[in-house]
Amino acid sequence: MDKPNIIKLVNGQKGNLIKITDLNLEGVMRRRLLDLGFVNGALVEVIRKSPLGDPIAFRVSQTTIALRREESSKIEGELIANGD
User: What are the Cα distances from residue 61, in Å, to 1, 3, 34, 51, 58?
Assistant: First the structure.
């Protein structure tokens, strides 16, 4: 059986589909992201990366949200599908 390809959201490329496995944030930011649908098992699509890579736009649960590199580097997931 193949090992899952675990990556941090910050390393995702446009069009990647990532299934969240770990949210390494605390406090208000963790609560905010959980409320927006960034929960274990949720599918996140990388929508767009700014030219310098910060922020990055993601779609989760019909919501598009831009996260800074600092936050997106603390969320890990399994790469489900490659994008463009």
Answer: 29, 26, 11, 25, 10
In terms of DSSP H, where are the helices of the chain?
27-36, 69-72
CA angle 50, 20, 79 (to 5 degrees): 70
CA dist 53 and 23 (Å) reads: 20
CA dist 17 to 26, 29, 39, Å? 24, 22, 15
Kindly report, residue by residue over 63-83, the tens digit of the pLDDT: 899 999 999 999 999 999 886
Classified as helix, coil or strand, 66 is strand
